Structure formats: structure tokens, C-alpha cells
Amino acid sequence: MSDRFKEICDYLVELKNTSELMIGLAYSSVLLNSRELAEEVQMLEEHMDRLHTDFELLVISSSGGEDARDMLGLIRLGLATEMIADAAAEIAEVVLRGEETHPILRMVIEEAEETVERATLSESSPLVGKTLREARIPEETGMWVLAIRRGDRWIRPRPDTVLEAGDVLIASGYADGVEDFRRLVEGSQTP
Fold first, then answer.
1. pTM of the model
2. Fewer CB within 10 Å, N or C, the chain?
């Protein structure tokens, strides 16, 4: 596999993963009426715009001698992920505009015991350098990590994801676990 082909594949995987993450966060922002999650979706949408443009430029510049139809297919796949990202941003925009929610959705939100919290992993946190599996955040706090923002990248958490100082962890769970989550991530509590 050529380096160019691998780079195109890597871009396409990141586009797919990011658009999937955005849909999940956008729906969560509406269900939990979370402005913080909606803002994350908007930041991700800006990231997707840049990523998609870079992907298209890479595909076009790599087409030397290839069948144009093959390249067009790749560009269309990238465009589909961009459309999903745009739809997620529209969903999150409902929360950011503060629009009145439908009475049924409002009842669901009011009855939900879940909340979303965002915290930055400090250098003094005992979680730095641990995988999510080792960190045992759900067991310690009742909160589940939905996404990790590392610099200008968003990561879909997996058990083997290693946590780094400066990571922004976005977690969902029961409201009574928020303080434990913040203390653990910010370094004032050991697991």
C-alpha cells in the first residue's frame, strides 16, 4: 500500500469517526439540554470542515493516472461524512439557540437523572498515563466518558485509550457523580 493511499484511508477513517461522534454528542446535547455538549459539536463541525477540505485536496492531488471514477467515489464518501457532521451541528444548534423544546422532550429531560460534565485532566491527576480501562472512571464516579478532546483532535474513547494531561474529558452519568468525576480528573482525588 502506497503512503498516499494509507494517508487517504486514515483521513477517511477520521472523517467517519468524527461524524459518528458528532451525531452522538448532538443527540445527547438535546436530550440532556446541555449547552456544553452543543458547543463541543460546533467546534467539531469547524474541525470537520477543515478535515474534509484537506481530504478532498489529498484525493485530487493523488489522482495521477488513477481512474477518475475511483477518485470521485472517494470524494463522495468524504462528502457524505461532511453532510452527517452538518446535520449534527444543526441538531446541536437547537440547544444553542435556546429554542423551546417540545413538551414530550421537555418531560424526558426533566425526568432524566443523567447529566453531562466536561473537565480538563490536570498533570496532578492520578489518571494521567492510564488507559480508560485502568482509570475505572465509571466505577469510581458513575460517569462514562463520551469523548476526549486532545488539542484540536477529538477521540472516541476505547478501553485502551491512554489519558494525557490536558485532555478534556466529556462524560455523562448521574448528577451525584459529577463532583467525584471533577475531583478525579482535576487531581484532588485518587482512584
1. 0.70
2. N
Of the candidates 73, 103, 133, which is a domain's last residue? 103
182 in a structural domain: yes
Q: For residue range 5-15, what is the model confidence (pLDDT) as tens digits?
A: 899 999 999 89
Give me the CATH number covering residue 80.
1.20.58.220
- In tens, the pLDDT along 64-98 reads 666 667 788 889 999 999 999 999 999 999 999 98
185 within 8 A of 163, measured Cβ to Cβ:
no
Angstrom CA distances, 97 to 2, 39, 105, 108, 139, stand at 46, 11, 16, 19, 35
Instruction: Say which amino acid occupies 178.
Output: V
β-bridge mates for residue 155, sequence order: 148
